[in-house]
Amino acid sequence: MTKTKDNLFKPEKLSAQAKSEQTTSIAKDILANETSARQKKTERLRALRLAQEAELGPAPKATKKGKKG
Question: How many domains does the chain have?
Answer without folding.
Answer: 1
